[in-house]
């Protein structure tokens, strides 16, 4: 018989079943950690460098693992490694996983992180229904893979490209939610991002590539290349993952100057999960 849910606030319950048992953020984190250990091994084996980013990088530095209420995991790799990474996943990804990206499935929404590595026989429904998964073979829990590419440090050169792709993002999502797959616009969206990276290949600066438009175009997250790569190892729960070598500078830009300050208690909530099943490929029967 399944146990009853604890009412402790620090348990961060994301789902309560009819029988009184529950799924907590820690349950999600356990599965994500297992996934990330396998992804890390693949990257090291094939000499593909990545860095933890977003809340995952913050968790590594501030909590030596997951932020206690964080229900996702994010990494970033360089654009120059992305094509090879896809090939590695095709040939070496363990059977219990699959991955989604536009390069392999034209239904993929290019305005979300460029890739999601998913665990089969699990299910997650995200808060943001506007960006619902269009790759119907698997709705499993996932690790987001962002892309870092060359950028200009000068706003006069950086901002116009971000605005153009930001407008394209709105149009693409408009079509997506009308159940129309705008393949030419998606290809243009990615093409602009790649072109921008190429023209800045000698700039010495990198940032989240222009397919990531959910940030203020006037405040692009831009880093000195030598502050990020070569990546270094950092403790994460019971293992080690890769992080930007100057993670203080990275987090000040990615999260904010006060990144070590805990948010107020009412902000310590899981932000991504509406429904979840860690032992089945669809919503649990309730």
CATH class membership of the domain at 13-148 and 223-264: Alpha Beta
State the end-to-end distance. 15 Å
Report the biggest beta sheet as strand number plus sense, adding barrel if it closes: 7 strands, mixed
Provide the gyration radius in Å: 19 Å
User: How does CATH name the architecture of the domain at 13-148 and 223-264?
Assistant: 2-Layer Sandwich
Residue share in helix: 25-40%
Tertiary shape? globular
Beta-strand fraction estimate: 15-25%
Question: Which structural category fits the helices and strands?
Answer: alpha+beta
What's the total count of β strands? Answer: 13
- Low-confidence blocks of residues: none
Give the assembly state of these chains. single chain
Mean pLDDT, as a whole number? 94
Stated plainly, the CATH topology of the domain at 13-148 and 223-264 is called Beta Polymerase, domain 2
Separate helix tally: 7
Keywords:
286 residues; alpha+beta; Beta Polymerase, domain 2; seven-stranded mixed beta sheet; two-stranded antiparallel sheet; 13 strands; globular
In short:
By secondary structure, the chain is an alpha+beta fold. The protein is built from 7 helices and 13 strands. Strands 3, 4, 5, 6, 8, 9 and 10 form a 7-stranded mixed sheet that branches.
Question: What can you tell me about this protein's structure?
Answer:
With 286 residues, the protein is an alpha+beta fold. The protein has a domain at 13-148 and 223-264: 2-Layer Sandwich (Beta Polymerase, domain 2), CATH 3.30.460. It is built from seven helices and 13 strands. The strands form four sheets. Strands 3, 4, 5, 6, 8, 9 and 10 form a seven-stranded mixed beta sheet that branches. β1 (13-16) and β2 (22-24) form a beta hairpin. α4 packs antiparallel against α5 (183-199). The longest helix is centred in the middle third of the chain and has 22 residues, at 155-176.
């Amino acid at each position: 018989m399944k146990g009853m849910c604890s009412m402790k606030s620090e348990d961060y319950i994301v789902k309560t079943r009819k029988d009184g048992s529950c799924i907590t953020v820690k349950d999600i984190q356990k599965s994500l950690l297992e996934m990330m250990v396998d992804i890390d091994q693949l990257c090291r084996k094939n000499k593909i460098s990545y860095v933890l980013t977003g809340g995952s990088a913050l968790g590594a530095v501030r909590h030596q693992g997951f932020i206690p209420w964080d229900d996702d995991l994010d990494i970033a790799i360089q654009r120059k490694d992305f094509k090879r990474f896809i090939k590695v996943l095709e040939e070496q990804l363990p059977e219990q996983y699959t991955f989604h990206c536009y390069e392999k499935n034209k239904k993929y929404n290019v305005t979300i992180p460029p890739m999601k590595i998913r665990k089969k026989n699990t299910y997650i429904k995200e808060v943001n229904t506007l960006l619902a998964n269009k790759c119907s073979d698997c709705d499993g829990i996932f690790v987001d893979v962002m892309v870092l590419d060359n950028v200009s440090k000068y706003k006069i050169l950086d901002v116009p490209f971000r605005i153009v792709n930001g407008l394209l993002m709105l149009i693409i999502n408009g079509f997506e939610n009308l159940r129309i797959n705008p393949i030419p616009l998606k290809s243009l969206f990615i093409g602009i991002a790649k072109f921008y990276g190429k023209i800045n290949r000698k700039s010495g600066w990198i940032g989240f590539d222009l397919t990531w438009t959910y940030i203020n175009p006037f405040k692009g997250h831009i880093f000195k290349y030598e502050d990020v790569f070569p990546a270094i190892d950092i403790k994460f729960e019971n293992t080690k993952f890769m992080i930007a070598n100057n993670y203080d500078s990275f987090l000040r830009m990615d999260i904010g100057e006060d990144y070590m300050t805990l948010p107020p208690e009412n902000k310590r909530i899981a932000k991504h999960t509406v429904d979840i099943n860690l032992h089945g490929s669809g919503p649990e029967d309730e």
